[in-house]
Amino acid sequence: MNVSTKIPTNGGWWLDKYGEAWKQQIEAVKSKFGGALEEVRDPWTYPTDVPIIYVKKDSLIQLLEFLKTDPAFAYSYLADYTATDEEVSPRFELVFNLYAMDRGHRIRVKCRLEEGEEAPTCISVWPGADWAEREIFDMFGVRFTDHPNLRRILMDYRWVGYPLRKDYPIDGFQLFPDAEAPDPERLK
Amino acid sequence: MAKDGHASFLTTRLEPFINWGQRHAMWPLPFGTSCCGIEMMATLCSDYDMARFGSEAIRFSPRQADLIICAGIVNSKMSPILKTVYDQMSEPKWVMSFGACASSGGVFPVYSVTQGIDNIIPVDIYIPGCPPSPDAVLYGLLELRERIKRGETHSQRRIRENQPAPMEYSSITRGGAPQP
Question: Which residues 6+ apart lie within 8 Å of B37 measured at CB?
Answer without folding.
Answer: B30, B71, B72
